[in-house]
Amino acid sequence: MTDDAIEENKSATSPAEVLLIFLKLGLTCFGGPIAHIGYFRDEFVVRRKWIDEHAYADLVALCQFLPGPASSQVGFSIGLMRAGYLGALAAWTGFTLPSAAALILFAYGAGALNGPVGAGLLHGLKLTAVAIVAQAVWGMARNLCPDRERASIAAGAALIILFSTASIAQIGAIVLGGLAGLWLCRSDAPAPSGHVEIPVSRTVGLVTLGMFFVLLAGLPALRSLTGSSGVALFDAFYRSGALVFGGGHVVLPLLREAFVAPGWLSDDAFLTGYGAAQAVPGPLFTFAAYLGMVVSPEPHGLGGAALGLGGIFLPGILVLLGVLPFWDSFRKRAGAQAMMRGVNAAVVGVLGAALYDPVWTTTVHSPQDFGIALVGFVLLVAWRAPPLIVVAFSAAAGIAMTLV
């Protein structure tokens, strides 16, 4: 696309349009943060061409480095680039609202799916994630690992993830990928394509970084001074969101320590909500809405759900806004380009490892499962079907398997 075409396309994007697009994704993005990255790539890189492959991979790598929910941060950034702060808010709202609402309803007892048909539906939706992640790995590997150096970096990153049980392994794989890129990916390397416009000034970036650290250090002190249960709950959610890297399932041990250990809810209630969070689309961080509904200290109910969502997502958004103004100039330096090529290859390896575990190992249990995932993959790659079609097919196939 030419610069004029890109600018014309950008000017045609309103916050309302961003909201509708992300609302559709929030209703259909099953499978966790890795699958969400695949959905976003299909929607914004392949179909709408809002961002090119390399810039998208750089953005994914950046969000993997930062604390907070990585897929939500990627969506927030895309909304910010397209329609400013209102676009960012629209992207976050559209992507977050469906799963948060579903988990709030579940907390009221109206969201559970029981019986074989419900189990088949949920299993079919999980098989959608297999096809989506496989498509993401396939497409990104072709574009980001075209030579033996980067293919080797991707393989090495995958091995680190597959052979390590440490939660920091993902960050370590990406860091090592960047160092390997500095060594292996300097020669004959094209510059990053396009300018990624970030409508955030460096002053705003520094202010938001300062807010991130002030809240991280100040909330525990305010909690001790006031003894307020509301401040204590917000601090628990904020600290959980601020100390997790990569998002998704990594936040669960932090939340369990923050809410079950002090006796704010039982282990059974926590695990029940966690199971429900697996069955809904959108970010797993919306589990905070369920927790806010059912915790024993005040405020709980809808007020607690709003407090939980705000507290757990806020630190990731603050640190993202703090880093984004410096990102585009950094990625265009020669050394940074080589490092980011290595990082991008490592991200492909991380995605490949995630395709196996947990996506494949927890979902594909039979030849029939493999067949459904394979058909979904072919629909996406060969027929270029919208992900919603694949979601509908996989859900119907999952139900059919339980009735045969």
Instruction: Give the overall form.
Output: globular
Q: Helices and strands: which structural class?
A: mainly alpha
| Mean pLDDT figure | 86
Distance between the termini: 49 Å
Helix/strand order, N-terminal first: HHHHHHHHHHHHHHHHH
How many DSSP-defined strands? 0
What is the alpha-carbon Rg in Å?
21 Å
> Describe the biggest sheet?
none
Question: Which stretches are low in confidence, meaning pLDDT under 50 for 5 or more residues running?
Answer: 1-11
Helix content: over 70%
* Beta-strand residue fraction: under 5%
Specify the number of helices: 17
Describe the structure.
With 404 residues, the protein is mostly helical. Helices cover 76% and strands 0% of the residues. It has 17 helices and no strands. The chain has helices at 3-11, 15-28, 33-47, 53-65, 70-107, 115-144, 148-163, 169-184, 202-226, 229-242, 251-259, 267-278, 287-294, 302-331, 334-360, 367-381, 387-403. Helix 3 (33-47) crosses helix 6 (115-144), helix 5 runs antiparallel to helix 14 (302-331) and helix 6 (115-144) packs antiparallel against helix 17 (387-403).
Question: What is this structure, in a nutshell?
Answer:
This protein has 17 helices and no strands.
